[in-house]
Specification:
- Helix content is 76%, strand content 0%.
- The chain is globular.
- By secondary structure, the chain is mainly alpha-helical.
- The chain is built from 13 helices and no strands.
Length: 279
């Protein structure tokens, strides 16, 4: 890895913060539908980021195209993940989402023509076996939540690859603002069709916390850091996210530990790391 320790540490903190909020978000989704939750979280975060970008004289117009591309990927991915989180456990969601790390080399091949290494193939095999263990065996039928989360991982893999390209030519805050605000606005129309929400104190607290800490601050930190490390380096560090999610969920008593879960999680994590090893 590059010797930019600040960037590496920043991505690590973001990964832990994102992982720790899986259980928090799952619990609050019993009081608010996914669509309005996404709308309020990302619109508030986008407004904060836009204000900071304008105060720093960073033009949103110049990053609009890149921001929309990233925003579409975040919106689709996050909607799939959040909707699926109402059907599966936080740990299961986090490990399946973490498959995007294994997908990064293949997406890089599709977009840039980068060669797929032997490590990527080995990592994929480990991840497939781990996923099978996680969902109950190769003869098990994945749930709708599993499939939606797998598709979410594909969106996030594409986001990592495109972010590595766009952060090299755009200011971090403006790029984060454009994509985050797009996600919030895109969630507006479907929010109108969602059940009405009683804005309890705990719902408002979670929306504000996730908007400010794990969206606004996290996206700026990630955009800044990804300009200083490669896409694969960022992906390896972000593999910590499902570990943080699983630890938080188990400590909170949301789920119990099983042998299949442990074996599946270990294999998926091994696949993530092996797929990104440099020659």
């Amino acid at each position: 890895m590059k010797r930019n320790r600040t960037a590496i540490l920043t991505i690590l903190i973001v990964a832990i913060a994102w992982g720790a909020t899986f259980t928090l978000v799952k619990n609050v989704l019993s009081h608010i539908a996914p669509e309005p939750f996404i709308f309020w979280r990302f619109t508030l975060a986008g407004a904060i980021l836009c204000a900071i970008a304008l105060q720093r004289k960073q033009s949103l117009r110049t990053v609009a195209r890149s921001g929309i591309i990233l925003g579409v990927l975040v919106f689709v991915g996050y909607w799939l993940q959040t909707r699926a989180l109402t059907m599966i456990t936080p740990s299961r969601s986090a490990f399946l989402t973490g498959l995007y790390v294994v997908m990064v080399p293949f997406c890089d091949r599709m977009i840039r023509g980068t060669r797929i290494t032997a490590q990527a193939w080995i990592g994929s095999i480990l991840a497939v076996v781990g996923t099978a263990a996680l969902i109950g065996g190769f003869d098990a039928r994945p749930s709708i939540g599993d499939v939606m989360t797998f598709l979410c991982a594909g969106c996030f893999a594409l986001h990592v690859v495109y972010s590595a390209e766009f952060t090299a030519r755009h200011p971090a805050i403006a790029l984060a603002a454009a994509q985050v605000l797009f996600v919030g606005l895109a969630a507006g129309p479907p929010s109108l069709l969602a059940p009405s929400t009683a804005f309890r104190t705990d719902v408002v607290v979670v929306i504000v916390f996730t908007a400010v800490v794990t969206t606004a601050l996290a996206f700026v930190a990630l955009m800044w850091s990804q300009a200083r490390v490669t896409a694969t380096e960022a992906a390896v560090i972000l593999a910590v996210e499902p570990l943080a999610a699983s630890f938080t969920s188990i400590v909170a008593g949301e789920e119990r530990v099983t042998i299949a879960f442990v074996c599946g999680g270990i294999l998926i994590l091994a696949g993530m790391v092996v797929s990104q090893l440099q020659r």
